[in-house]
Design a protein that fits this description.
The protein is of the alpha+beta class. 53% of the residues lie in helices and 16% in strands. It contains seven helices and five strands. A five-stranded antiparallel β-sheet has the order 2-3-1-4-5. The longest helix has 25 residues, at 132-156. The chain is elongated.
């Protein structure tokens, strides 16, 4: 690979790192062609982009990026695959599901919404991370609950203020 080719790869990786807030590093070494193909298929279905990268080039791209990757460059040894996703837990779910039948991929580390996780021990924690959409859904659900109480009080109170107040106070006591 020439210097120019390496520069292009580093620029491309830097752009991908900049554009994605979810980056996972995994070890898929030792997987045969069929198993690797199955992993790629699982990633595609989960909307996760999987690519094998050269450690030195990825390290330079991380350095050139505007993001703070903490200790993540320290895991760039041996075989490294990079996974990009828009959902924080999607790559972790793919890895966990895939490992039900295989020993790999092993999680080397992850960068999720500016938080850095180093090591395979964090796989379960990463699987349980909620996406922005899930958190927003939870918040909307919590906000709707008081509104539903008021609406039900209006309906059951017969439209009179005394009835509405009585119904709301009964619900507070519960």
């Amino acid at each position: 690979m020439t210097r120019e080719e390496k520069s292009i790869v580093i620029e491309d990786l830097t752009a991908q790192l900049t554009d994605n807030s979810v980056v996972y590093l995994a070890d898929i070494s030792g997987l045969d062609a069929g198993t690797t193909s199955n992993l790629r298929r699982a990633c595609f279905k989960a909307n996760v982009k999987l690519a094998v990268v050269k450690n030195t080039l990825l390290a330079k791209a991380m350095e050139a990026s505007d993001k703070e990757f903490g200790d993540l460059p320290s895991v760039l040894k041996g075989n490294t695959s990079i996974m990009f996703s828009e959902t924080g837990n999607a790559p972790a779910k793919v890895i966990k599901e895939f490992r039900k039948k295989n020993d790999k991929p092993l999680l080397k580390g992850a960068f999720v919404e500016e938080a850095v996780y180093v090591g395979d021990d964090y796989l379960d924690a990463l699987v349980n991370i909620k996406s922005k959409e899930e958190v927003i859904g939870d918040i909307v659900g919590l906000l709707q609950s008081p509104a539903k109480n008021v609406i039900s009080a209006l309906k059951s109170g017969g439209g009179k203020i005394a009835g509405i107040l009585k119904t709301l106070s009964e619900k507070e006591e519960k």
